[in-house]
């Protein structure tokens, strides 16, 4: 095999590995946003968005994205009465009504398949201080 043929084969295999592994690397991106620390009675804003791959409503191919947010209170007893506003939209919010830790979970899909550019489900913690 000639040097050029060997080089071409090596570059082809390297390129194949990059392409095959790319979704795994990109899928590790957090799309539910960073963890937050807020005061009691604050309005907590949550934005489901990949920093470069979607506008919050469509993927790079123009396919509409579907969002589903879920909120849970991680402390016992669970004495929170808050609810998410617009839990099926790219952005949601809630009032941090009690001190403790909330966890918001976000699922992003397109055509009923996980959106490959986001970690799905993705979780964000919100620490609420007195």
Folded structure, characterized:
- The longest helix has 24 residues, at 3-26.
- This protein has a single domain (30-129), classed as Immunoglobulins (Immunoglobulin-like, Sandwich).
- A hairpin with a 2-residue loop joins strand 5 and strand 6 (113-114).
- 18% of the residues lie in helices and 33% in strands.
- Strands 1, 3, 5, 6 and 7 form a 5-stranded mixed sheet that branches. A two-stranded antiparallel ribbon has the order 2-4.
- By secondary structure, it is α+β, with helices and mostly antiparallel strands.
- It is elongated and about 70 Å long.
Which features characterize this protein?
130 residues; Immunoglobulin-like; two-stranded antiparallel sheet; 1 helix; 7 strands; elongated
Helices and strands, with pairings:
Layout lengths: L2 H24 L9 E4 L3 E5 L18 E8 L17 E5 L4 E11 L2 E2 L7 E8 L1
Parallel strand pairs: 1-7
Antiparallel strand pairs: 2-4, 3-5, 5-6, 5-7
Second-tier CATH architecture: Sandwich
Class derived from helix and strand content: alpha+beta
Question: Which fold name is given in CATH as the topology?
Answer: Immunoglobulin-like
Uncertain segments = 15-26
Question: Which CATH class?
Answer: Mainly Beta
Total domains, how many? 1
CATH superfamily: Immunoglobulins
Based on CA atoms alone, the radius of gyration comes out at 20 Å
Shape: elongated
Task: Please count the helical segments.
Answer: 1
Ends apart, CA distance between termini: 72 Å
Give the amount of beta strand, in percent: 25-35%
Helical content (DSSP H or I, runs of 4+):
10-25%
Overall pLDDT level: 80
SSE order in H/E notation?
HEEEEEEE
| Total count of strands | 7
Largest sheet: 5 strands, mixed
């Amino acid at each position: 095999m000639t040097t050029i043929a060997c080089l071409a084969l090596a570059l082809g295999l390297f390129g194949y590995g990059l392409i095959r592994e790319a979704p795994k690397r990109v899928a590790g991106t957090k799309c539910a946003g960073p963890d937050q620390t807020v005061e009691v009675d604050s309005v907590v804003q949550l934005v489901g968005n990949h920093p470069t791959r979607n506008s919050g409503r469509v993927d790079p191919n123009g396919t509409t994205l579907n969002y589903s947010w879920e909120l849970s209170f991680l402390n016992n007893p669970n004495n929170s009465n808050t609810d998410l506003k617009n839990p099926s939209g790219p952005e949601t919010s809630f009032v941090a009504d009690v001190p403790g830790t909330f966890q918001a979970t976000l699922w992003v899909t397109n055509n009923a398949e996980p959106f490959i550019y986001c970690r799905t489900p993705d979780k964000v913690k919100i620490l609420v201080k007195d």
